Amino acid sequence: MPRELNVALIGYKFMGKAHSHAYRDVDFFFPSDCRPVMKVICGRNQAPLQDAADAWGWQEYETSWEKVVERDDIDIVDIASPQNTHRDIAVAAAKAGKHILLEKPMAMNEAEAREMLAAAREANVKHMVVFNYRRVPAVAYARRLIDEGKIGRIFHFRACYLQDWIVDEQFPLIWKLRKETAGSGAHGDLNAHLIDLARFLVGELTEVVGQTHNFVTERPLPVETGELSTMLTAAGGAETGQVTVEDTASFLARFDNGAVGTFEATRFAPGRRNHNRFEIYGSKGSLVFDFERMNELEYYSADDEAGSQGFRTILTTDEAHPYVSAWWPPGHAIGYEHTFVHQVADLLQAIHEDTEPHPNFHDGWKNQQALDAVLRSAESGARVTISH
Amino acid sequence: MPRELNVALIGYKFMGKAHSHAYRDVDFFFPSDCRPVMKVICGRNQAPLQDAADAWGWQEYETSWEKVVERDDIDIVDIASPQNTHRDIAVAAAKAGKHILLEKPMAMNEAEAREMLAAAREANVKHMVVFNYRRVPAVAYARRLIDEGKIGRIFHFRACYLQDWIVDEQFPLIWKLRKETAGSGAHGDLNAHLIDLARFLVGELTEVVGQTHNFVTERPLPVETGELSTMLTAAGGAETGQVTVEDTASFLARFDNGAVGTFEATRFAPGRRNHNRFEIYGSKGSLVFDFERMNELEYYSADDEAGSQGFRTILTTDEAHPYVSAWWPPGHAIGYEHTFVHQVADLLQAIHEDTEPHPNFHDGWKNQQALDAVLRSAESGARVTISH
Amino acid sequence: MPRELNVALIGYKFMGKAHSHAYRDVDFFFPSDCRPVMKVICGRNQAPLQDAADAWGWQEYETSWEKVVERDDIDIVDIASPQNTHRDIAVAAAKAGKHILLEKPMAMNEAEAREMLAAAREANVKHMVVFNYRRVPAVAYARRLIDEGKIGRIFHFRACYLQDWIVDEQFPLIWKLRKETAGSGAHGDLNAHLIDLARFLVGELTEVVGQTHNFVTERPLPVETGELSTMLTAAGGAETGQVTVEDTASFLARFDNGAVGTFEATRFAPGRRNHNRFEIYGSKGSLVFDFERMNELEYYSADDEAGSQGFRTILTTDEAHPYVSAWWPPGHAIGYEHTFVHQVADLLQAIHEDTEPHPNFHDGWKNQQALDAVLRSAESGARVTISH
Amino acid sequence: MPRELNVALIGYKFMGKAHSHAYRDVDFFFPSDCRPVMKVICGRNQAPLQDAADAWGWQEYETSWEKVVERDDIDIVDIASPQNTHRDIAVAAAKAGKHILLEKPMAMNEAEAREMLAAAREANVKHMVVFNYRRVPAVAYARRLIDEGKIGRIFHFRACYLQDWIVDEQFPLIWKLRKETAGSGAHGDLNAHLIDLARFLVGELTEVVGQTHNFVTERPLPVETGELSTMLTAAGGAETGQVTVEDTASFLARFDNGAVGTFEATRFAPGRRNHNRFEIYGSKGSLVFDFERMNELEYYSADDEAGSQGFRTILTTDEAHPYVSAWWPPGHAIGYEHTFVHQVADLLQAIHEDTEPHPNFHDGWKNQQALDAVLRSAESGARVTISH
C-alpha cells in the first residue's frame, strides 16, 4: 500500500483548479509509493468554495486557513491564494510542521520571502515554489543539455513573457492590477517566471538595470460577479480607479558566470496569449523555447558539420525527454496542466525520500531579491547590484 | 445527483490507458448530468490486467469479454482491443443493449463494419468510433469555419499521416504488422484517420486510386515481454517472419462535391513522430493543420486586404474555440489525451439527451468502405468507384 | 581577355526578363573565362520588343527567329517563347550549330522532345533545359547530402507545387490556359519542375497513376493589352471560351530504386503564391524544401543523438553551400533571379570546358515522357509504366 | 535620353561590391529619367582596386579620394569606406557640391555627424545614409501599415540583431574589432540599424539605459592577406592584441510617443547568421520582421474575428508590396542586394525631382546621438536622456 499524504489547498480559482487536477492525475501517470489525498480545500467564500470542492473532488472545504493549517491530519499545505496572503499562511504552515507547495511569486517582497525561507528551514519541512515551467519537458531537457556541456560557456540569456489580456482600456481593475493584493504587475507575475528559468538554466543574477511603464493608468472598477469566473471575463462598471502596478517591466542583467541577459514582461502585446520565451546562446550551441509551442525545443549545435548547421526543432515527446515517457508515445503532445502533475510527482518523491526538491523557498527568495532589485533600479534609473 | 453510467473497457494497452484516463478526467473539466463509473476492465491476461485496473482506477477486472458484455450493470462497452476482435464484441454488446465506444479502424473489412452498424441500429444503442482527431479544438474549429462558409467551395484536401517507428529493419514483427491481427498496416491505422477527417471536413469520397508499398518485408519475431510494455520498446529475436501489411499507402480521390484529394500514410518518414497533417484549399480561404502542433490552426482568408494576406497561425486556445474554455486560459496548451476526454464528454451528453453522436458506426462503415476501395485499387492498378 | 559568346534570346516576357538579367549579372558574380554578349532579342511584335531590348540591354532586336538562328555571329540560342514554338526553334538552332538554352517544359509532347534531343546530339552542341530550381543553393545542397549518403536509402519523395493565380473565375483565358499554346496546364507548368527535382534527387520514375481536374471550365477571353503586361494583370472581356488544360494534376509514382512518390500541382490553392515544396524521407535522414523559403533547407539526421533529434532549419547562405559564396556573407538571402544566373554561369563553363551540362535535352525528354504518362493514366484511370 | 549621373565610389570591399551592383542593376528594374554611370572607384591599394574596377564595371580607379571628390565630372560620391574616414570625405564631398550616399554608421561620434549634416545642408546637396533595411519590402510595408493606423498606438518595439561570426576566440583582431577604425563594435554596426528601424517605424528615442560586454578580450592580430578577401575568412597569427570595441550591447529605451523599447546587438549568438529582427506591438495590431526571412512579414490584427486571430505570415512579394512589382511575380523572393538597388533608385529619383530622400544625414545624426547615449549609459550605469 502506498503511503497517503493528506493535502489542504488554499485557493480555488485558476491555480486552485490547476493544483487540484494535479493531485487527481498524478497517481495515474506517476504511480509511486506516495499517494496524495485531496482532503480539504480552503477559501473565503463558502458558496463557490463548496462548488469547487464538489467539482474537483475535495473531501471537505473550509473557510478558515488558520484552522486548516493546524489540522493534525494534514501533511501538505498548498498555497494558491493571492500574493498578499503567502507569508502568513506559509509561516504558519511551516510552524505547524506541514510540507508546503507555494504559488509564485513567493511574497510581496524580499523581506517576506526571507522570513518564509527561515520558517521552513527551521521547521525542517519540504518547501517548493510553483515555478512550473521548470517541468515542461523541453525546459528540463534544455537544462540537461546545458549540464552535459552541449551549450558550452553561456553568453546570452534573452527572455520575454508577453501577454495581451489587458490591452483593452475597459478591462477592469481586478486584484492583479492592484499593488496591495498583487505586489506588482507584469513584473512579479511574468518576470518572476523568467528569473526562475534564468536561475535554473544559467546562474545567479548579480546586477540589473530596469525600466517599467504603464500604458493605461485608470480602469473601471470590477463589478462583483460569481467567484468562479475567470479573470478574462471580468467586467467593469462606471466607477474607475488607479492602476497601481506596472503594465510592463524590462531589465538588463549580468550573471555570476559572465553571461548577460535581457528580460521583458508585458500584458500589452496583442497576439501573444502566453508567450513565455527564452533564447540561450553559448560557445557550443544555442537553445530556444517558447511556451506557446511547449512541446518543442529549438537546439543549435555548433558541432554540426559545416553546411548542415541549423536550429533543430526537437519535438520533446521522445522517451529521452524528461517526464514524457509517463504519458504517451512520441509525437503525442502534452499540455499546460502536465507541468503541475510533474511538480506534484516530484514533491511527493522528495517527501518520501527526504530529499530537497527544487525550486524551493531558497529559489523563491533569490527570485524575489532579483524582482525587488529591478523595481528599485526602475525607480532610480541606475544599476542595482544583487548581493549573495 | 448526476446519473451514473457504468463502463466496461475491453483492452488495456495504449488505447486502454487513453480511454481510462478520459473517464477519470471528464467530470473534472466537463461536469454534466452524467458521470461515468469505471466499473470493469477486461483483457486476456490476468496479471497485467490487474495492474492496469489498479493503476487506472477500475473497480474490477475480468478476462472474459463475453461475460462483461452480458452484465446487467454495464451501460457502456468501450472496445479498445485489436481490430480482429471488434466485430464480435461490438455485435454482442449491441445485442446486449449496451452503448458502444469503439476504437478505429472499425473492423477488418467493410462487410464486418456493415454488420456492426446494422446490429447497433437494430439495438437502438448509442455508437461511436474513436476518430479522436475530430475533437482537437483546431479541427473542430476548422469544421466551424467551413460550416460558416469561410472557406467557400472546397477545391483540395491534401493530407498525410507520417510516422517513423518501424524504419529500423530490426524492429520486430508485432501484431500491428500482421494482417491477421491488424487487418492492414499504415493504411488502416493512419489513412483511416485521414479519411475520417476528409469526411468530417469535406464530404464523401466517390472514387479512389491507390498505391501501397513495403520497404521491409521480413522482420524478427517479437520476444515475449511484459504485457504493459509499449509498442515502441518491443524487442525482436533471431527468428524472422513475413510482414503482411503495407508500410505505406497513398491514394488520390474525388469527393461528391467536386473537390479532389491526396492522401498518404507511412511509417517510414524519419523525423515525423506523429505527423497527421491536412491542408484544405477553398475559393474563399485555406486551412492547414498538423497534429504535431495540435494547438494551432493555420487559416488563410482570401478576403483579407491585398498586401495583408497570409496564413494566420491561430493558437486555438481562446474562448472562441471548441472545448477549450473547459480547460485553461488562452495560450495554455492542451495535449493528446484531451481529445479522448472530449469524445467521452460528447458520448455522455448524447446518451443523456438521446441524440446521435458522431463519428458513429455509419461513419466507421463509410470509412472502412473507402479503406477497402483503396486496397483494391492498389492491387488492380485501376480507379475504384465508391458507391453510396 | 575572356572569350565572348554572343547570345540570341527568343522571347521577351517573364522568362525573357529573367534570362536577360542573368546574362547581365553573371559576370559580376561569377567571373570566368567566358563572357556572354547580349547580342539580339527576338519576338513577334516590334514595339514591345524594342522596349525590351532598350530596357534590358540587348544590342539589337529582330522579329524573325528563323533569321536569328541562322546568324553566323550567334553562339547561344536561348528559347524562352511558348511551348508550341520550342521544337521548331530548337531543331533549327541545333542544325545551325548553336548551343541551346531552353525554357521548360521542353516540348508539346514526348515525340517532339525526342526529336529535339536527337537534333542536339547530332549537332554536337551544348543543350540545357531551364529547370532552374536545381540551382537553388538549398536544392543543390540537398543533392550533395544525398550523394554523400546522409539520407541513406530513399523511401519517399513527396512534392507539391501550389499556386493561386487563377482562382478567380473571371481571370481570363490567357495562352497558358489553352492546350494549343501551352500543351498542358498546371501539369506541364508545375509538375514538370517537380519531376525534374525528383529525377535530380531520387531517380527515374518507372510507373505512375494520375488524376486531373478542372474547377473552372469556361473563362472570359482576354482583352488585348500592351504586350509587356504580366500574366497576373491580364483582363477579360464579355466573350468566353473553354479552358482546355487541367487546373490541377496529381499522381503517385514508383522510382527505379524502390522509392515511392506523390506529386501534386494546382493553381487553385489560395494563399500559396509559389509553393514549390518537396519532402524526402530516407533511412538515415530527411529533407524538406519550400521555394517560398528558398534560402532554407530542413534536414533531419537520424544519426543525431536520441533526445536531440529534430529537423534543422539550415539557412543555406554559408560558404559551404553551392553558389552562395559568390554572392554575400552568411545570413544574406538571395532571390529568385539568382537561379538563372547560376544556370547561365554553368552553361558558360560547360561550353568553355566542353563538358555536358545538366539538366539537358535528355533530362527534358525523360521529363516529358513522365508528364505524358501521367496524362494518359489520368485519362484511362489505370497505372502507366514508363519504359527506359 | 535619361539624364546621366556620374558616380564615384570610395571603398571596394563588402559594401563596395553591394553598392557597385546596385548601380549596375538599378536601371534594369527601375528605369527612370536618371541613369547612374559607374565612373570611378577609389581605394588605397592599387592592385585590388584595379581588380574591383574590372570585376564590377567601373570605368576608372583612383587611389586618392581627395582627387575624386574634386572632379568636375562627378555627381554622386558614395562613401563605403571604414567609419573613421566618413567625416572627412563627406565634408569635402559636400563642399565640392556632390550628392552623397554614405554607409552606416554615419560617423565616429555625434559631433562628427553634426558637422557632416551641417556641411551637407550648407552645400544644399542630396544626402542619404545606407540604412538599407528600410527598403526591404516587408519593412517598407510595415511602415505603411503603421501610417494607415493598422497598428494603432504603439506600446512596444522589441529588436535584436544577432550574429555569430566572432564566437571563435581565434578569430583575428580585424579593423571592425578596433575602436580607432570602427568607432564601436556590435553597437555601432548592428544597433545602428535597429535604431534606424525604430526611428523609421516608431519615433524618436528620448531616454536610454544600456549595458555592454566583452566575452573575448584578446585576439590574434590578423595576418595580411589579399585585400579582396572577406572578413569571415580572415586569419590570425601568433601575436595578439586587445579587443577595444564591445562584443554585445543592449539597451532599454523610451520613445517620444510613449512607447518603450528593448534593443540588443551581439556577435556571439551561435546559429544566428544575420538575425535582424523586430517586434512591434500596438493597440490594434502587431508586426514581426526577421531579416533571415526577409520576404516575410508577420502581422496580427486585433480586428480579426474572435477565434480567427493569429499572426499572418505575409509573403511580401505581391503587387501591393513596395518595390516588389519591379522584380518578379508573387511568390518569387528577392534577396539582400535588392535593398541597395531600391536605395539607389530612390536616391536617383530624389536628385531628379529635387526632393529630400530618407534616411538622410539628419537621420544619421539622430542615430549617432542615440548610439552615443547608450555607450555613455553603459559606462555610468545610469539612464541618459536624449535631447531634441
- From the coordinates shown, what is the CATH architecture of the largest domain in chain A? 2-Layer Sandwich
CATH superfamily of the largest domain in chain A, please?
Dihydrodipicolinate Reductase, domain 2
User: How much is the average pLDDT of chain A?
Assistant: 95
Considering residues with a beta carbon less than 8 A from a beta carbon on another chain, report the largest interface and each chain's count.
A-D, 43 and 43 residues
| Helical stretch tally of chain A | 10
Oligomer: homotetramer
CATH fold call of the largest domain in chain A: Dihydrodipicolinate Reductase, domain 2
> Share of helix among residues of chain A?
25-40%
Query: Percent of residues of chain A in beta strands?
Result: 25-35%
* Highest CATH level, the class of the largest domain in chain A: Alpha Beta
